[in-house]
């Protein structure tokens, strides 16, 4: 679907509703007949699908926390 800037300003809420209800995949807004922006609906990813998405893809070394005291001293100039 393509609309010009004047139509987009006038019918902005209607265009958003078209995207939300999936009656349009995307809407191109043009100026002087040339497309300048593309509006799309942003699908919200449920938190449950984001948490743990990298599980099993990375392995931290066994001594991962070994340098914590040294790093703390370098960053703060003091000890824990």
Describe the secondary-structure layout:
Elements: E1 2-4, H1 5-10, H2 12-20, E2 26-31, E3 34-40, H3 47-50, H4 68-76
Parallel strand pairs: 1-2
Antiparallel strand pairs: 2-3
Quaternary structure annotation: single chain
Helix and strand content put the structural class at: alpha+beta
Instruction: Report helical residue fraction.
Output: 25-40%
The major β-sheet equals: 3 strands, mixed
Give the mean pLDDT.
Answer: 90
The second-level CATH architecture of the domain at 1-43 is: 3-Layer(aba) Sandwich
- Give me the CATH fold name of the domain at 1-43: YefM-like fold
How far the N terminus sits from the C terminus, by CA atoms, comes to 61 Å
Number of helical segments with 4 or more residues: 4
Number of strands: 3
Strand-residue proportion:
15-25%
Low-pLDDT stretches are none
SSE succession: EHHEEHH
What's the overall geometry?
A: elongated
Please state how the strands of the largest beta sheet are arranged side by side: 1-2-3
CATH class of the domain at 1-43: Alpha Beta
Rg of Cα set: 25 Å
């Amino acid at each position: 679907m393509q609309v010009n800037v004047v139509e987009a300003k006038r019918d902005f809420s209607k265009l958003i509703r078209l995207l939300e209800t999936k009656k349009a995949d995307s809407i191109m807004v043009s100026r002087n007949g040339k497309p300048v922006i593309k509006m799309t609906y942003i699908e919200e990813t449920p938190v449950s699908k984001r948490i743990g998405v990298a599980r099993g893809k990375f392995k931290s070394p066994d001594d991962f926390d070994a340098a914590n005291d040294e790093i703390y001293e370098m960053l703060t100039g003091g000890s824990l």
